[in-house]
Amino acid sequence: MKSNVYDCVIVGGGAAGLYCAANLSRLEFNGKKILVLEGGNRVGRKLALTGSGRCNLSNTEIDPSKYNTDDQVKLESCLARYGCTETSYYFENMLGVVLEQKGTLLYPSTLKSSTVVDALRFYLADNNIETESGVHVESVERTSSVYEIKTDSDKSYMAKNVVIATGGITYPVTGSTGDVVKILKSITDESFFVPFRPALTSLSSDISGIKGLAGIRCRGDVKIVDSQGTIKAQSEGEILFTKEGGISGICVMDVSDAVVRLIDDGEEDVKAVLNLTGKSAGEILQMIYIRRQMYAHRTCSDALSGMLLRNITDFVMKHMGLKSDKMTLRELDDRRLCELTNLLCAFPIPVKGYGAEDKAQVSSGGFKLSKLDDNMQVKGCHGLYIIGESVNVNGICGGYNLQWAWTSAALAAESISQDV
Ligand SMILES: Cc1cc2nc3c(=O)[nH]c(=O)nc-3n(C[C@H](O)[C@H](O)[C@H](O)COP(=O)(O)OP(=O)(O)OC[C@H]3O[C@@H](n4cnc5c(N)ncnc54)[C@H](O)[C@@H]3O)c2cc1C
User: Fold this and answer.
1) 221 CB less than 6 Å from ligand 1?
2) Is pLDDT above 90 for 405?
């Protein structure tokens, strides 16, 4: 059985694990024995998928209130100590990645996520940081002075510091299967964790006619409403109708966390109330009213086609029991004009489910932030750190989740380097 004492072993070669290793080599830790263990056959597989292959790696206006966590105060302090500015500096000046800003979103200027994966890989190689792929870690156990990292083969490793960066549960094909819980079984119990659940995912509905909208995109907003009529979350942006019969798009994903919680807590009447126009009801009412004067003889589909996608008009009017391709706008009386307007601006879609782990971009849940110190070290377990999506911190779309990976990784690296 091979055994070796490392100064630091990082379990998981994803965004957080690679960034932690890179930061360690920059700090006084340089020259120490550092090892990254990756369960898959190569590092950074999920990172390579991010931002539709372009990697939206941060956001210049990160707002801590747009994250879910069990310790909001600590999260705010972490992001204040190491946020977008520090990340941008590190990427540009240490990793050599030229960044480009689109609105508030940061990308590599190549608009290729492989640029980011390569930059991290090359930096680790330049600094003689060992990386072993295809090594699946089963457990981390505490011995008197060091940690023992056991794998699914007969190989084990000894380390003074261990960083768990095994990610959450989403896109399990990339190797992230929520292993932090299993790996820390001998050291923790379930009180240390919030159960992992999908977040940033699509929503499904069985409402009649929704499959006919597959592939349609429209600007608007979405409100998640429970059975009491309370708005639990809202967001605006592009709504995408999916081929499975549901809705997705950034604004839908941003409110999906609230839906997952409601459904998992047994709420049976969850609605996504959609504004399908991107405009206020007053504006829409006026626009249709004017069209009724100008194009009274046209069918409703034709008369409204300049301001609304035909499929949307057809879907909403069908829901009202009307045939938009037969009825003229003249025939749409004031009462029905108001009803159409109200539905276009607040269409209630009953939500029956949500995209599972294989569809979601991020997971909520994980190791409680409140059980970590300010530098991601497990309280009472000197030298044991948890970073990235393994921690109970998840944010909205727009670079928030990778920023958390970079932030938590850099803070852990700083702490480890000061301790040795
Ligand atoms: C399709 C998609 C697009 C996304 N786009 C964006 C975006 O544009 N911007 C953004 O901010 N966020 C985005 N995200 C979210 C972002 O990718 C994650 O938040 C981030 O990758 C988390 O980093 P991590 O290192 O904590 O975990 P991961 O990237 O999941 O890495 C964990 C690593 O640990 C390894 N591992 C797991 N278990 C073991 C084990 N037992 N032993 C050894 N190794 C193990 C895994 O193989 C994996 O390589 C996206 C996610 C997806 C799925």
Assistant:
1) no
2) yes
Does 168 lie in the same domain as 224? no
Residue 2 pLDDT > 50, yes or no? Answer: no
Q: Which ligand 1 atom is the nearest neighbour of the CA of 135?
A: 43
Query: Is the four-CA dihedral 194, 172, 156, 36 of positive or negative sign?
Result: negative
Q: What are phi and psi of 364, to 5 degrees?
A: -90, 165
| CB distance 137 to ligand 1 below 6 Å | yes
Atom of ligand 1 nearest to the CA of 167: 27
Q: Is the pTM of this model over 0.85?
A: yes
- Residue 362: how many other CB atoms lie within 10 Å: 26
Spatial separation of the C-alpha atoms in residues 122 and 116, rounded to whole Å: 10
Is the beta carbon of 167 within 6 A of some atom in ligand 1?
yes
Q: Is residue 357 part of a domain?
A: no
Domain that holds residue 330: 281-347
For the cut 50, the answer to whether the pLDDT of residue 71 exceeds it is: yes
Measured in degrees and rounded to the nearest 5, phi and psi for residue 102 equal -120, 105
CATH code, domain carrying 41: 3.50.50.60
Q: In the structure, what pLDDT confidence band is assigned to residue 3 with cuts at 50, 70 and 90? A: very low
Domain shared by 340 and 224, yes or no: no
Q: Ligand 1 in contact with 178 (CB < 6 A)?
A: no
Task: Indicate whether 217 and 312 sit together in one domain.
Answer: no
Q: Model confidence over 194-239: pLDDT tens digits?
A: 999 999 999 999 999 999 999 999 999 999 999 999 999 999 999 9
54 lines ligand 1 (CB under 6 A): no
How does the average pLDDT of the chain come out, rounded?
A: 95
- CB of 136 sitting under 6 A from ligand 1: yes
254 and 161 co-located in one domain? no
Cα dist from 202 to 88, 240, 252, whole Å? 30, 9, 7
Report the b/e string of 105-126 with b at 16+ CB within 10 A: bbbbeeebbebbbbbbbebbee
Q: Which of 253, 272, 291 corresponds to the end of one domain? A: 272
What is the model's pLDDT at position 1? Answer: 43
Per-residue pLDDT reduced to its tens digit, 131-161: 999 999 999 999 888 999 999 998 999 999 9
The answer on 114 and 55 residing in a single domain is: yes
Position 30 scores a pLDDT of 64
